[in-house]
Amino acid sequence: KILIVANWKCNPTTLLEAKRLFQTVSKTASRILKIQIVVCPPFVYLPIMRQVGKGAIKLGAQDCFWEQNGAFTGEVSPKMLKDIGCSYVIVGHSERRRYFNETDEQINKKIKAVLKSRLNPLICIGETIEQKKHGQTPKVLRHQLESALKGIDRKAIKKIIVAYEPVWAIGTGIACLPEEAQSAGLYIRKLLTEKYNRRTADLIPVLYGGSVNANNATNYIKEAKLQGLLVGGASLNPKEFLSIIRSVSLL
Ligand code: PEP
After folding, report:
1. Confidence at residue 33, expressed as pLDDT on a 0 to 100 scale
2. Which of 5, 7, 97, 99 to mutate to test the pocket of ligand 1 (most atoms within 8 A of CB)?
3. Tens digit of pLDDT for each residue in 73-103?
4. Which of 213, 212, 131 is nearest to 167 (CA)?
5. Would the pTM count as exceeding 0.85?
6. Which of 125, 176, 212, 216 to mutate to test the pocket of ligand 1 (most atoms within 8 A of CB)?
7. Peptide bond preceding 178 in cis form (omega within 30 of 0)
8. Which of 34, 58, 97, 250 is the least crowded, having the fewest Cβ atoms under 10 Å away?
9. Over 80: is that where the pLDDT of 54 sits?
10. Catalytic-role residue among 102, 127, 165, 240
11. Can you state the angle between helices 137-148 and 104-116, rounded to 10 degrees?
């Protein structure tokens, strides 16, 4: 199944809006079998979304902590997320790296904790505009992926999803060209093959994220041959998000 993941980020600001948005998407999701829709709302809405949805949508968190419990004020653990019915956790989003100084080492610890709780980590990697200008995209992707997967064995890797999210494309309206997304996707698969093997690498979905909208969504599946999309801004507009889902379902 193609994966379409909605990252609501720090939105919406009321439970009522969150319920409405989720219900609208949920109605359509239950009719589209070819796509697995995952919605990642803020933590506080997660248990309520589970009750509101019809089960066709899987739930994801936007982050988590690397310990399962203890004296860590303000943190939410993978074990808690699993218990309330979450299936996915976004780890290493560029906004967390940038605004909260998340390091590669912390991201690696989070991925290990997510796997330990039998959840699917959705690992975000991608270059900044400066790195792209200096031709450093492959070097950055290699570094971020290798550090994220440090110490993770072939058996566990099957639960992993990788999202290529060029930082310059996130929230900017400047979407990546399908050719660029395709070459990044192929490079990610090459790195996974080097670390594990071809068969294992082929099991891992590689998604694209960065200013996806109803006009460009199909390019990343059809032309770039990626296995799904991570949608930020457009996932908050039910009309736009449902158009993305419908256009991909018609491929
Ligand atoms: C994201 O937050 O992962 C993202 C891709 O955002 P946007 O679609 O708004 O660029």
Report:
1. 85
2. 7
3. 999 999 999 999 999 999 999 999 999 999 9
4. 131
5. yes
6. 212
7. no
8. 250
9. no
10. 165
11. 50
DSSP E strands, 22-179: 35-40, 58-61, 88-91, 120-125, 161-164
Kindly list the protein residues whose Cβ atom lies closer than 6 A to any atom of ligand 1.
Answer: 7, 9, 165, 170-171, 209-212, 230-234
List for the chain the helix, strand, coil content (%; round to 5). 50, 15, 35
Assess contact for 42 and 10: CB atoms under 8 A. yes
Instruction: Give nearest CA residue, ligand 1 atom 6.
Output: 232
Instruction: Please give the distance, rounded to the nearest whole angstrom, from the Cα atom of residue 170 to the centre of ligand 1.
Output: 5
What is the secondary structure of 102-145 as a DSSP string?
--HHHHHHHHHHHHHTT-EEEEEE---HHHHHTT-HHHHHHHHH
DSSP letter, residue 201: H
The whole-angstrom separation of Cα 121 and Cα 148 is 11
| CA 190 – CA 69 distance, rounded (Å) | 36
